[in-house]
Specification:
By secondary structure, this protein is of the alpha/beta class. The chain has two domains: 296 residues, Rossmann fold (3-Layer(aba) Sandwich); 203 residues, N-(1-d-carboxylethyl)-l-norvaline Dehydrogenase, domain 2 (Orthogonal Bundle), CATH 1.10.1040.10. Helix content is 46%, strand content 11%. The chain binds D-mannonic acid.
Length: 507
């Protein structure tokens, strides 16, 4: 279709004024945007949130017309999301992509309108504090990724010596971290006599709400124990499981969306059709009708989190490290390798599924089958390198919790051992074609030093022992003899024989 051209020959920008000219097939806000009120402050407005929380909130606004749940987004670091969305009146496109039964790519487009404003925290931290301490705000939600919590990956404890935490304790008007904004924002609410909030973590951490509560309490305690007690008593921190694959948007994606929309969206987001969200019914001051947008309001979200972290994210990381080292740039390419597919099936069926709690109404075989299809979605081009980042923060809840459960039950861990070995092998920084890649991880320098020191040993057993001895990640499993015994031969095989031949033996 032709792009809508202005007189100057420029493609028009997606915004309130161009909404009406979009093709009929593009879904768009059907409520009165001018009447929206800001009920949610979201910390970490990235692609995932825009394709998940915002989509469910949009559906709720649309379904019941309760317009008190507009979203104020906050970028904690960069201005790029605000710069893209502000000229678009906060509007952006969600492109839901997969392939039909003949493998032909297809997409469904929706313009989302519930993001009212985006604040850039480093430019104006007071505006963020004021948004949290606004009388209309009732939920502060977070997608700040695992590392944004500044907690020790192995123990979950607050890293209270971290420079940003030290800074935030001393600068109530200009925090840097999400935790700092929450605690100082809540202090402001308290001083103003405003009611309690719900703090809603939407990150891939086990018991994310409970964990957030502990970290917020630990930071508040350092400031004022009365503030801490007030937060713990009155605010709510529901656990939640979020699931939707949302790869980073590329320029090719942007061009494709523009061509289909007939106007320019500077930052659309790409997502798979699958959507899931189990959130515990534990709110301090109400919530949108998220069940109208695919949310499941449950009594307990923690068992769903366990399922999702171990199956979806655990497999994702295994695909990412094995795939990347073998030269597969995207998840769907990696999934086209029958040996990797077979390994994943065995990892799930033999080692992960036996550790999962019973979930009423869940058909595990169908869930597994669907998951393999989701990973194979060719329309996403989800880069293995994107998933590979921040391994030090991801490995503990994706694999090590499962390892712990299996060791406690005296069960074998050969396939989990291979996954751990794949991460350690990946840390060398080059693939089987000798192509270098970056290790993007908050512990990158420690991991580099670890890898170098392990290389000094000729014995595979000693090398593995050293690597698995890395306590910040392995915690109480550091140098555990059974884990070392599982990792050592897998790592040696990856080094000597490569991914494909290793998979021949391990699955
Ligand atoms: C992925 C997740 O990047 C990653 O580490 O495993 O972002 C994954 O795509 C989502 O959690 C799926 O819900």
């Amino acid at each position: 279709m032709a792009l809508v051209n202005t007189k100057a020959g420029m493609t028009e920008r997606l915004c309130a004024a161009t909404l009406a000219a979009l093709p009929d097939a593009v879904a768009r806000p059907a409520y009165d945007r001018a009447a929206l009120q800001p009920g949610i402050v979201h910390l970490g407005i990235g692609a995932f949130m825009r394709a998940h929380l915002a989509v469910a909130t949009e559906a709720a606004l649309q379904a019941d017309g309760d317009l008190r749940w507009g979203i104020v987004g906050v970028s904690l670091r960069r201005p790029d999301t605000r710069d893209a969305l502000a000229p678009q009146d906060g509007l952006y496109t969600v492109a839901v992509r997969d392939a039909d039964e003949h493998g032909k790519p297809r997409q469904q487009l929706q313009v989302v309108g519930c993001v009212m404003q985006t604040l850039v925290a480093p430019e104006d931290p007071v505006a963020v504090l004021e948004a949290i301490a606004h009388p209309a705000t009732r939920i502060v939600s977070l997608t700040i990724t695992e590392k944004g919590y500044l907690s020790d990956p192995a123990t979950g404890a607050l890293q209270d010596a971290h420079a940003d935490i030290v800074h935030d304790l001393a600068h109530p008007q200009a925090p840097r971290t999400a935790l700092g904004f929450i605690v100082h924002g809540l202090a402001l609410r308290r001083a103003r006599g405003l009611g309690p909030l719900t703090l809603l973590s939407l990150d891939n951490l086990s018991s994310n709400g409970t964990r957030l509560r502990g970290l917020v309490a630990a930071l508040a305690e350092r400031l004022d124990s009365g503030l801490r007690d007030g937060i713990v008593q009155d605010c709510r921190f529901p656990n939640s499981m979020v699931d939707r694959i949302v790869p980073r948007t590329t320029d090719v994606d942007r061009d494709g969306v523009d061509a289909a929309m007939g106007c320019h969206d500077a930052w659309p987001v790409i997502a798979e059709p699958f959507f899931d969200w189990a959130v515990a019914d534990h709110f301090a001051a109400g919530r949108p009708a998220w069940e109208r947008g695919g949310g499941r309001i449950v009594a307990e979200a923690a068992p769903w989190e366990l399922l999702k972290l171990r199956m979806v994210n655990g497999c994702h990381s295994a695909i990412a490290y094995l795939g990347l080292v073998a030269g597969s740039r995207t998840v769907d390419r990696a999934m086209s390798e029958p040996l990797l597919r077979r390994y994943l099936l065995q990892l799930m069926q033999q080692e992960v599924e036996p550790t999962l709690p019973a979930l009423p109404g869940l058909d595990l075989a169908a869930y597994r089958e669907r998951l393999l299809q989701r990973f194979a979605n060719p329309a996403l081009a989800h880069r293995t390198q994107q998933i590979a980042m921040d391994g030090s923060q991801k490995v503990p809840q994706r694999w090590l919790a499962t390892v712990r459960d299996r060791l406690a039950a005296g069960q074998p861990i050969a396939r989990l051992g291979l996954a751990v070995a794949a991460w350690l092998h990946f840390l060398r920084g080059y693939d089987e074609r000798e192509q270098d890649y970056a290790i993007d991880d908050p512990l990158a320098s420690e991991l580099l030093a670890l890898t170098r020191s392990a290389e000094l040993f000729a014995s595979p057993q000693v090398r593995a022992q050293r690597l698995v001895g890395f306590a910040p990640v392995f915690g109480d499993l550091a140098s555990h003899p059974v884990l070392v015994a599982a990792v050592a031969p897998a790592l040696e095989s990856l080094r000597q024989r490569g991914v494909t031949r290793t998979l021949e033996d391990w699955a």
